[in-house]
User: What shape does this take?
Amino acid sequence: MKYRLDDICEFINGGTWSDKEYTDDGIPVLKVSNIKRNGFAIEELNYIPYELLNKYRKHLLRVGDVVIATVGSHPNLVESAAGRSCVITQQVKDFLLNQNAVCIRSKNKDVLLQSYLGSLCKTRDFQHFIQMRGKGAANQMRIAISAIKDYECDIPDLLTQKQIGESLSAYDELVENNQKQIKLLEEAAQRLYKEWFIDLRFPSHETTPIINGIPEGWTKTNIDCLCELLKTSIVPDEIESNTPYIGLEHMPRKDFCLSTWDDSSSISSNKYFFKRRNILFGKIRPYFHKVGFAITDGVTSTDSFVIEPKQEIWGLFLLTVSSDAFVNYAYKTCKEGAKMPRADWNQMKEYPLLVANESIQKQFEKNISKITKQIEVLAIQNHKLIEARDRLLPKLMSGEIEV
Assistant: This one.
């Protein structure tokens, strides 16, 4: 039977709060910028005071809620496209939703299961329907909630809905669990770097003399001596089909594994070529903290630096350039104005760092290599899971494959 979403769903608008209402602690607010293609980035959150809980209680997000971005860029830009949807998980349960997004819930569980609604809102038919009704320029499209409410579709019986929802959510759960493991591994690498190279509490530090602030046998140098800045440009006609493309929109904040990309089919301008294990650093607004290592060969925007560290200090280099201290340095030494600051490599390359003696450096690199290889395995597994889920979704929803 065909239903209009407005007849079977409840629509809850995101709230509008001014900067004056935000506090350093309280009820976390989920912004569109925190909602990614395959999960949530929960750094740099804003908060609403707990005293306002009763006022906004009905707006608290529940597990299974479907959140749709109503403002964003062109649909081809995956990470920031208007109309993209995400299903709320335990990670962001009881957050409040900010403006430029809408939360959708089934209001008749005898007709529509919430798990099926989450799958429905990811279908190409649904996305196309609401995005075609978006208004505004390509870099700032807005989708009216009324356009979402107008969507009509056939809803299968409850058993079929349940089976489809369970089949697809199994993939999402695996992806989420892998992502949690990746985050823990990244944190372990960052702790090791801080302990050994910032706090200088490396193995045998108790018996190592410190001479002029540097452990004996260690070397003080700068970024430029330990890497090569790559500028291998490639024109669109020379890019092979299905080549992975990592633009700034695919680079997560404060995650140093670059596991999201599109294919090169929509590329219309020159790009830089990169190799697996090269490090990419987003040069526009460097305070966005978009820096990480590639797990595949591919091409990237010329708005990123492509860096190839010396192999023997690869781990130290990665942890250095992805640290808060280095990112802050890159921002403070930008060469352009505040509206669109760009990191300046001539300044970045002078950043000082310590390289340990041969024994300690080898031990550190071995530890970081083990961690990043585990991260890479999990990230590739997630990429394959997401591809498999995305291939399965339209076939299940159209009835091409029975559950």
